[in-house]
């Protein structure tokens, strides 16, 4: 039996953003295709003319497909984007933006009168190739059918190749302890760390920021973040130290169990120029006490002596754990050109101690690379041109709040296509790795205080909403976001393109991607439409199928 009051539904792709106060503009979605080991997401939008509570969601799907249905929540944004933004945003006004993906409880959904909302459907397939109808039905609490839709999903016989892109989103373990009110590295904290690592790995993050010492990132000068130091340090004589790696071993073992492929050891010097040592605490005279920090000049004899003892001990431990080929180091994050000399001194301090490890830092000026100060540059996406022009390899890319003109990004205010296009760009330019600083930064800017990420999405008017975190804290673990799932799709696009390249060659892949475009795809120039992306991914799948038959 069907309810007689007006209730509208529409299937939409994962690239649609459904706002409560805006009519739907995107075309209905009728079908899709995936490779066998791929995740496919789509939405069912709905609008009721009256308030309805306890709306139930029912799915009809073949048992070989794993389906998850979540409710797309809305969260406030007071700073959606900077005022001088480009035209490629959905809206720039403060308000409620769709982002968190909430599990649907026994109480079901609420349909607010006159508001469009949506549910997010995720399909994972390891089943047999074929056509699968996916049915979605919404019912009232009395069992009346409010609306129903069906999507035809083709599961192809081919599988995505393993991910080769190295991908890190900086993981802030102190934010977990702060939000959940748990003692750092207590058993409950370790459980939370594991659950957030699982979500990261499941969404294509295969490198994990590993806090040897408390990472000197987004910290107010003179201030400090909670101590999250995995390496135990003991002062056994003046300027003489002993090191313990038990917690670091536990971390690495956990990462191995959860599928982390690479370890990104935290920065050995402070952010923005390598002028100081990070906060390091040690057991001295029977008490835990800070031995280095803001008061320590980076090039001081004391810190140099410490590194000359610590890094060889760490190298020996890395060799023992068998992770040398999976280990990366940082010096200082985002140095500017006027900090080149302080960065040079820091680079030279550790260069001979880490000469056979990759050292990689986020920076935008080519001079750091050409002067031999960083082996593997991580260039901002709006400053990649010079690195690409000189065929730098390996080359990584990153974006953050500063990359809000022309290039890809994932602010609340931006269309999801601007998030997903990154996969095609990384493929075309053969980028080795991608870094973003905000997996779960739930503090205000400079880590001055804790924030509630469901209420404050801009780090207290510091970064546009969507920059500082891509997961939310749930009661027992992470709540994913639509931006996270779309980023996962971008990485799947990259892997699908690599599979296609193995079948038809790189030149033909790029020619097919750019067919019909007025200009070649670059990091600043690319098709903006969601329909183009969806059609191009369909072409990729169809071509893979044709050349695999």
Automatic annotation (TrEMBL):
<feature type="domain" description="Glycoside hydrolase 123 catalytic">
    <location>
        <begin position="170"/>
        <end position="500"/>
    </location>
</feature>
<dbReference type="InterPro" id="IPR025150">
    <property type="entry name" value="GH123_cat"/>
</dbReference>
<protein>
    <recommendedName>
        <fullName>Glycoside hydrolase 123 catalytic domain-containing protein</fullName>
    </recommendedName>
</protein>
<dbReference type="Pfam" id="PF13320">
    <property type="entry name" value="GH123_cat"/>
</dbReference>
């Amino acid at each position: 039996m069907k309810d007689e009051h007006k209730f509208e539904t529409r299937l939409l792709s994962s690239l649609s953003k459904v706002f409560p106060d805006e009519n739907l503009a995107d075309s209905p979605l009728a079908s899709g295709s995936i490779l066998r080991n791929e995740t496919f997401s789509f939405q069912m939008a709905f609008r009721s003319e009256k308030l309805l509570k306890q709306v139930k969601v029912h799915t009809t799907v073949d048992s070989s497909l794993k389906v998850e249905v979540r409710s797309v929540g809305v969260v406030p944004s007071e700073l959606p984007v900077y005022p001088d933004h480009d035209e490629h945003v959905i809206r720039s006004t403060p308000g409620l933006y769709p982002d968190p993906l909430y599990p649907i409880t026994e109480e079901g959904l609420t349909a607010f009168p006159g508001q469009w909302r949506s549910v997010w459907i995720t399909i994972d397939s390891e089943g047999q190739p074929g056509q699968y109808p996916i049915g979605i039905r919404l019912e009232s609490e009395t069992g009346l059918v409010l609306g129903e839709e069906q999507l035809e999903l083709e599961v192809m016989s081919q599988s995505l190749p393993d991910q080769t892109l190295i991908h890190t989103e900086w993981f802030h373990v102190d934010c977990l302890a702060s939000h959940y009110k748990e003692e750092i590295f207590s058993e409950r904290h370790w459980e939370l760390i594991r659950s957030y690592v699982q979500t990261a790995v499941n969404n294509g993050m295969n490198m994990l920021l590993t806090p040897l010492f408390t990472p000197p990132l987004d910290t107010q000068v003179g201030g400090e973040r909670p101590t999250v130091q995995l390496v135990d340090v003991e002062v056994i004589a003046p300027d003489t130290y002993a090191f313990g790696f038990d917690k670091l071993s536990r971390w690495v073992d956990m990462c191995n169990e959860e599928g982390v492929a690479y370890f990104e050891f935290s920065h050995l010097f402070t952010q923005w120029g390598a002028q100081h040592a990070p906060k390091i605490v040690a057991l001295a005279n029977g008490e835990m006490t800070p031995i280095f920090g803001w008061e320590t000049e980076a090039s001081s004899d004391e810190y140099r002596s410490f590194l000359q003892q610590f890094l060889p001990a760490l190298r020996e431990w890395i060799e023992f754990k068998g992770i040398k080929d999976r280990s990366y180091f940082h010096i200082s994050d985002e140095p500017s050109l006027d900090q080149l000399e302080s960065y040079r001194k820091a680079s030279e301090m550790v260069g001979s101690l880490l000469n056979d490890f990759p050292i990689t830092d986020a920076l935008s000026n080519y001079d750091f690379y050409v002067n031999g100060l960083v082996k593997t540059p991580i260039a901002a996406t709006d400053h990649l041109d010079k690195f690409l022009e000189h065929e730098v390899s390996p080359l990584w890319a990153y974006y953050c709040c500063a990359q809000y003109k022309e290039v890809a990004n994932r602010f609340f205010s931006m269309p999801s296509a601007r998030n997903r296009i990154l996969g095609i760009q990384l493929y075309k330019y053969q980028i080795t790795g991608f870094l973003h600083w905000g997996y779960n930064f739930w503090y205000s800017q400079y880590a001055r205080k804790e924030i509630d990420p469901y209420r404050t999405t801009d780090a207290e008017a510091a970064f546009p909403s969507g920059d500082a975190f891509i997961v939310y804290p749930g009661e027992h673990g992470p709540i994913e976001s639509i931006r996270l799932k779309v980023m996962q799709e971008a990485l799947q696009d990259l892997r699908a393109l690599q599979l296609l390249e193995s079948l038809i060659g790189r030149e033909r892949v790029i020619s097919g991607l750019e067919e019909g475009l007025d200009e070649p795809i670059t990091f600043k120039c690319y098709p903006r439409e969601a329909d183009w992306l969806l059609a191009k991914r369909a072409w990729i799948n169809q071509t893979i199928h044709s050349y695999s038959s």
